[in-house]
Write a sequence for this structure.
């Protein structure tokens, strides 16, 4: 079943300082994960869930993103002349995934501000937000489940994942109540990057959201929080506390997630995805085993 009416927003205006100097001129979203830029995995995930209208929030020096999703006729002609149809198909796929729009964030005022910039494009309907740092394995279902819950309940839906309590300070943490459905919880509160002793749980918000249009007026009046940025978590907290609204529901994800926002985890993501591929894994796995034995 398609979900053509729902749009997606991908915030991609971050500076990528953890990957300098690689990101001095290249957007962090364009860093390759095996042989595709990270942002293509995210666009593919949205398209696979039936979303064909995607708004990418970009910053300065982000033209590489729009160039990647444009067609390149001269390259397509060259590959056709060479008879390299396999590469031609991969090149053309990125241009045919969805109807992709771009909007500059302007000042980097945080995730909440980036989402707010999407207001005019999104309109009055619920919409998906997918962060490019979190790659969800295409073999594991998440976004379609979140869309179904939103359509059924009208609630805001966030993706949650159990993390080591010592790492919860890196995430927004959720206080939750159990429901009758396995791995579906009601979110009663949210704290942005709490210390381990102050965290309400070890359930961390990961980068997938289904938000109502009602989030926009909340973000418009949300004051800057941690880091001097407008935090999306603060707006979600208000939605969760609204006793007259549909509230916030969390989907606890237990599948494969690859964090490309950290240098070590980025390398792990490449290795994990490459070893699972039919065209690379058979050669890579024995080498990795041999290499690990030398350490």
């Amino acid at each position: 079943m398609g979900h053509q009416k729902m749009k997606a927003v991908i915030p991609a205006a971050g500076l990528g300082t953890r990957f300098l100097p690689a990101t001095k001129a290249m957007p962090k979203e364009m860093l390759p994960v095996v042989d595709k830029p990270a942002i293509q995995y995210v666009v593919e995930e949205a398209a696979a869930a039936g979303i064909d209208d995607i708004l990418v929030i970009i910053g300065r020096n982000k033209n590489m993103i729009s160039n990647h999703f444009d067609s390149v006729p001269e390259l397509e002609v060259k590959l056709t002349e060479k008879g390299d149809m396999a590469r031609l198909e991969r090149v053309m796929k990125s241009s045919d995934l969805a109807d992709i729009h771009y909007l500059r964030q302007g000042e980097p005022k945080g995730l909440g501000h980036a989402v707010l910039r999407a207001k005019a494009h999104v309109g009055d309907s619920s919409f998906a937000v997918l962060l490019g740092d979190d790659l969800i394995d295409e073999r594991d279902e998440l976004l379609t489940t979140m869309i179904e819950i939103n359509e059924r309940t009208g609630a805001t839906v966030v993706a949650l994942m159990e993390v080591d309590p010592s790492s919860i300070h890196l995430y927004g943490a959720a206080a939750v109540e159990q429901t009758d459905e396995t791995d579906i919880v009601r979110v009663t509160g949210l704290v942005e990057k709490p210390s381990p002793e102050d965290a309400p749980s070890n359930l961390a918000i990961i980068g997938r959201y289904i938000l109502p249009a009602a989030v926009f007026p909340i973000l418009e009046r949300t004051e800057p929080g941690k880091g001097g940025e407008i935090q999306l978590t603060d707006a979600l907290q208000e939605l969760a506390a609204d006793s007259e609204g549909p509230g916030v529901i969390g989907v606890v994800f237990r599948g494969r997630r690859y964090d490309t926002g950290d240098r070590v985890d980025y390398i792990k993501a490449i290795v994990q995805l490459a070893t699972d591929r039919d065209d690379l894994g058979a050669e890579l796995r024995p080498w990795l085993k041999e290499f690990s034995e030398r350490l």
